[in-house]
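#struct-pred
JK: can someone run the complex with guanosine-5'-triphosphate? inputs below
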Amino acid sequence: MKPVERWVEEIAGETKPDRVVYCDGSEAENERFIKQALDDGTLSLLDQKQHPGCTLHRTHQNDVARTEHLTFISSKKQEDAGPTNNWMSPADARARVWPLFRGVMKGRTMYVVPYLLGPAGSPFCRIGVEVTDSLYVVANMRIMTRMGQAALDELGSREDFVPGIHSTGDLSPDRRFIMHFPEERSIWSVGSGYGGNVLLGKKCFALRIASAMGRDEGWLAEHMLILELTLPDGDVHYVAAAFPSACGKTNLAMMVSPLEHLGYKVRTVGDDIAWLRPGSDGRLWAVNPESGFFGVLPGTSAATNPNAVETFRKNAILTNVAVTPEGVPWWEGKDGARPPVLTDWKGSPWNGEGPAAHPNSRFTASARQCPSMSPRWEDPQGVPLSVIVFGGRRASVLPLVAQAFDWENGVFAGATIGSEMTVAAFGKVGTVRRDPMAMLPFCGYNMADYFGHWLRMKDRLSRPPLMFRANWFRRDADGRYLWPGFGQNIRALIWMVERFQGKAEARETPVGFVPAPKSLNLDGLDIRDDALETLLSVDHDAWRHETADIRLFFQKFGDRLPPELNRQLDETERRLDRSEGF
Ligand code: GTP
Ligand code: SPV
Ligand code: MN
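RT: done, structure tokens with the ligand placed:
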């Protein structure tokens, strides 16, 4: 018996499914599963004329976003999980959580889902196996990962797969746990049917477990998009950008360049997760470990993200959207007029109160259907980065774009990013929290050690990418966005890449280099001078509050925080003091 078969047998012995089905990922199998899911009500068909092959899934009403308070890192020692993670000892996990799996699959089928993260044969490639009692999970994993036979072939008799156990359980939040064991590299998830909690290849493996692997093996697992920017002279550059959940990664990665006629072209490599490793050439190389998108629907239209609209036009799974009586999906911010009659995301007639689609409603669709994919998106070696961006959603404080002075200052910039919370996770939407590298909910070990790992990466990079802060969400006194955002964000990207080339002019501020007047390409963009000035300004008083808040945040980590970061903080404050009156 192969190791994977032995493990499956053991889990089946505990969870007691009626049957065990190994998934091969084939077209025929998928058709069979979809039909079954349509029959049992897990999925329903959307209008097949407009959306061939598309289905709708509704999650339970209390199960619509990641639940960070029910997500645990179960390392032997609490300090290895660190102050920003919930911790449960492995013994407590056995005692409190494991019993929830006993007999949980009685009367259900257990599907065995083997999958690859990263292209097969790539040095980045890793193997996972998820067992689940949800056909929704199977159908999603087939899109999001390289699932089925390819993974079984790669797996062979190997033991080094990451096992993940998922059961929807009874969906009670009292019995919902998302457990990670970074030392033994395994995952348990029970009591949820929502994306990030149950598609174990995504946040659980590709970020939380992979970040711990990366620490041990010398690479990084990051909550980043990857895009390709081609300049008019034909030079090709790759950019990785970390923004917190629902802060614009998918939109940036799939943007349509408004300057394509001038030779500025953007293509997509990934929209949510990047695995980064130093190459023998001293550059930092990136792959997208996924093969599909689990993207936010509200606000997505032909105007904001036509590439996404085309990507989920067919063969997509739409979760928690509203539908017309004909089964045409609808969400707030979709193109065209709102249909007069809608069933809301809960399945009830929509009475106009509250949103019709859930604000965190999402599409699952294959990257192969995305018109903007770069020809190199599955390159086994990955793509070399020129630029790393750390962004946040901030109404004030954070300028549109600012370049870090050097690698250490860039790690400081990433480690101190604050962002307003969004609907992607259960919590207080709109409140600013520190979200280092957009990884606060996703780092599988002590974040102080993670900062140290980032700092040390520099020793292996003789040609490091440049690092930047960015913020597309600055607002005026009336709450209106000062920056048009979406495709126009290319202006900031071009400036960043031109900084890497040593071409663009900059102005030094206490928090980094910002674009000098006229150095941002604003060709064809209608933006007021005073808006631009605010966007590129550094408000000293606001930044003093910011540094005070950062100091408090750093104190959480005690002695474990790398001293470089407090030194960077001190230097930032000194620069703010020195430049007062300018
Ligand atoms: P996750 O999948 O949760 O990790 O999110 P993401 O970072 O990929 O976010 P996404 O691109 O889906 O954007 C989330 C929301 O922000 C959507 O409603 C977008 O319409 C909106 N958004 C994206 N980019 C911009 C921008 O440049 N400006 C403004 N104002 N809104 C944006
Ligand atoms: C996020 O919340 O950052 C997502 C969606 O990308 S989920 O897969 O649910 O985590
Ligand atoms: Mn995400």
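RT: quick notes.
The chain is about 25% helix and 20% strand.
Residues 74 and 89 are 5 Å apart (CA to CA).
JK: thanks, will look after standup
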